[in-house]
C-alpha cells in the first residue's frame, strides 16, 4: 500500500470533521480562483475550474463563495492575485516531496516552506531535483461500494486509461493528463459516480519507511506542510504499513 495515499485519505477524513474545515474551504476557493485566472470563468470551457467547483461543492462550499472565487480569479472583483509554485524537497528517510502552492508573495512562501522542511529534518531542494521521480497523471477515484471493479476497468480502458487499481475502498484510475476529462465523461455517461478527479504527481518508485522514528518525523513534516495556508497539494513517494503509520501518527501534534 502506498503510505502517502493512505495518509492523505486519513487527513481528508479528519479535515471535514474538525477545525480544519475553514482552512479547507480557503484552499478550495483559492484553487477555484487560480483555475479561473488561468483558463477563464466558464466551467464548460475550463476543465480545471469544473473540477475545482465540483470539489468545493462536495465539501459544502456555498454557491455564493464559489461565485466570488471565480470573480476574483477573472478580475471581476478585487482580491489577492495568486500564482502557482511547485517546491521540491526531501523528507526524513530520503522520501521525495512535491509541494504545490498558491501564493501572493513567493518570497515569503519560499522562506516559510524552507523553514518547515529544515525544522522537521528535511531539506528544500532545487527545481528538478525531485520532480523527475514523479509522473504527471490524471487520477480518478470511484467508490468501490458503488461500482464493480470489472465495470470500472472496462469503461476506463475503453476511454484510454493507463491503469486501474483497487485502493483503500476506492478504485483508482490513472491516465495521461489530456485524457482525464474524457474518462470522467465516460464514467458519468455510464452512471458510475466519480468521487474525485484531478491532476497529480504519481511517484514512479516508492521508498519504504519502516523505522517508527523516521515515520514520526516524516508525518510531522507532512502535517506541517499541509497546515500551511499557501499549500494546496502534497505528493510524496513513501510506503508504510498501517501498523507503522498508526504508531507514528499517535505522537504527531494534533492527535
Give an overview of the whole structure.
The protein is α+β, with helices and mostly antiparallel strands and 255 residues long. The protein has three domains: 3-74, Integrase, N-terminal zinc-binding domain (Arc Repressor Mutant, subunit A), CATH 1.10.10; 83-132 and 205-249, 2-Layer Sandwich (Alpha-Beta Plaits); 134-203, Alpha-Beta Plaits. It has nine helices and ten strands.
Quick overview:
The chain has 9 helices and 10 strands. It is globular and about 45 Å long. The chain is 45% helix and 24% strand.
Task: Tell me the layout of helices and strands.
Blueprint: H1 3-15, H2 20-39, H3 47-58, H4 63-74, E1 83-91, E2 95-103, H5 106-119, E3 123-125, E4 134-143, H6 149-158, E5 163-167, E6 170-175, H7 180-189, E7 194-203, E8 207-208, H8 212-227, E9 231-236, E10 238-239, H9 242-249
Parallel strand pairs: 8-10
Antiparallel strand pairs: 1-2, 1-3, 2-9, 4-6, 4-7, 5-6
Helix pairs in contact: 2-3, 2-4, 8-9
